[in-house]
Amino acid sequence: MSIGKNVKHFKPGDDVLWDLSGDRGGFAEYICTHENALTINPGSMTFDEAVAIPQAAMLVIQGLRDQEQIQSESKIKLTLAFC
Length: 83
Description:
alpha+beta
């Protein structure tokens, strides 16, 4: 594994979680992405548990759009709490 010379928050071998929304290659063994699409796995959940987060977040956003009349252009900030 390697990282780009400008990466500041990660090192090779870090266990990371990845936001797939803007990239392709979700089932790839290796991927090239931007540093801001990654976060360190907090270790309090397995990768199997962590992969459910994006689906859950999209369900929240869909509910807000359907029930609260939030427009697709609106910005929504979701905060995740790792227990």
